[in-house]
From TrEMBL:
This is NADH dehydrogenase [ubiquinone] 1 alpha subcomplex subunit 13. Residues 1-20 are annotated as: Disordered. The lineage of its organism: Eukaryota, Fungi, Dikarya, Ascomycota, Pezizomycotina. Its main location: mitochondrion. It comes from the Eukaryota. Complex I functions in the transfer of electrons from NADH to the respiratory chain. Accessory subunit of the mitochondrial membrane respiratory chain NADH dehydrogenase (Complex I), that is believed not to be involved in catalysis. The keyword Cytoplasm does not apply. Keywords: Electron transport, Membrane, Mitochondrion, Mitochondrion inner membrane, Respiratory chain, Transmembrane, Transmembrane helix, Transport. Pfam families: GRIM-19 (PF06212). InterPro entries: GRIM-19 (IPR009346). It is a single-pass membrane protein.
Length: 119
């Protein structure tokens, strides 16, 4: 039996590739979009860090400017306590004892602690 031969002119082309349209963006476009989004995020992060530094600086300067006010308030409280202590001493002893060399108020340099402490 003779062997079958191809037709004259050959067989038609065989379609072995799939003919599907590409979906989505090309990888370079996706990479560019991702880079732009990350760049925007880093920009906003830098702005936020700069804002936090500015707020911290403003807070520090506001505290620096409040120090004299707080110091004056503490001094007034110390003088009030000192005068109340002198009045209490006058009630108990009948007169003020001169402990210091002058009448000028001097901030106390000791701290009152309790006699017994529990550990």
């Amino acid at each position: 039996m003779p062997q079958d031969m191809p037709p004259t002119g050959g067989y038609g082309p065989v379609q072995y590739k799939r003919n599907l349209p590409s979906r989505g963006f090309r990888p370079a476009v996706l990479l560019g979009i991702m880079g732009a989004a990350m760049g925007y995020g880093w920009y906003k992060l830098a702005l936020g860090v700069r804002e936090q530094h500015e707020m911290a600086r403003e807070k520090m300067w506001s505290r620096i400017h409040l120090i004299p006010l707080l110091q004056a308030e503490e001094d007034r409280d110390q003088v009030r306590r000192h005068l109340a202590d002198q009045a209490r001493e006058r009630e108990l002893l009948g007169e003020n004892t001169k402990v210091y060399n002058s009448e000028r108020f001097v901030r106390p340099t000791f701290a009152a602690t309790p006699r017994t402490t529990t550990k």
